[in-house]
């Protein structure tokens, strides 16, 4: 069971994702640690480390989506200790992506690692990818 203060922060993070898929990266930026060991692996680029790279990547993501809306968050797993926690969710979202005028659904498998920093929960690591259903082993082969 997650501590209540973390439950509140995760809900704030869900709202920050709402803003991100509408093109506003600022709320999501506030969820991340500003420490140099913060890391992010998302579907539009290689894994990165450090606050400056996180900030640039969130801005790039926000510039490529608009008018988005989350459909739902499906919690798969969670765990928390006094100063470290993780949440695994499937994030189901719709947005206008790139130059498209059509609302398109997309889903991400997202693992978020939280840690206590100066009395507040911050994202220390996030990994998100579009793998939300079984795939054949051949799907991992490089072209």
Describe the structure.
With 143 residues, the chain is an alpha+beta fold. It has a single domain, classed as Nuclear Transport Factor 2, Chain: A. The chain contains 3 helices and 6 strands, in the order H-H-E-E-H-E-E-E-E. It has a 6-stranded mixed beta sheet, with helices on one face. The longest helix has 17 residues. It starts with a helix and ends in a 14-residue tail after the last strand.
CATH secondary-structure class: Alpha Beta
Q: Give the overall form.
A: globular
Strand content: 35-45%
The quaternary organization reads as single chain
**SSE string, helices as H and strands as E:** HHEEHEEEE
Q: Kindly state the percentage of residues in helix.
A: 25-40%
> Order of strands side by side in the largest beta sheet?
2-1-6-5-4-3
Q: Count every helix, treating DSSP H or I runs of 4 or more residues as helices.
A: 3
Q: What's the number of extended β-strand segments?
A: 6
Rounded to the nearest angstrom, the radius of gyration is 15 Å
CATH architecture descriptor: Roll
Main pleated-sheet profile: 6 strands, mixed
Mean pLDDT: 96
Q: Into how many domains do the coordinates divide?
A: 1
CATH topology: Nuclear Transport Factor 2, Chain: A
Secondary structure category = alpha+beta
Distance between the termini: 42 Å
Low-confidence stretches: none
């Amino acid at each position: 069971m997650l501590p209540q203060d973390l439950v509140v922060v995760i809900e704030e993070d869900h709202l920050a994702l709402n803003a991100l898929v509408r093109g506003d990266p600022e709320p999501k930026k506030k969820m991340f640690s500003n420490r140099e060991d913060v890391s992010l692996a998302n579907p539009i680029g290689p894994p990165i480390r450090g606050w400056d790279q996180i900030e640039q990547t969130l801005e790039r993501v926000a510039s490529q989506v608009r008018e988005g809306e989350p459909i739902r968050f499906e919690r798969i797993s969670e765990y928390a200790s006094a100063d470290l926690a993780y949440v695994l969710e499937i994030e189901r979202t719709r947005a206008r992506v790139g130059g498209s005028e059509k609302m398109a659904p997309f889903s991400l498998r997202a693992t978020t690692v939280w840690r206590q920093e100066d009395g507040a929960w911050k994202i220390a690591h996030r990994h998100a990818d579009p793998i939300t259903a079984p795939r054949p082993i051949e799907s991992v082969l490089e072209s």
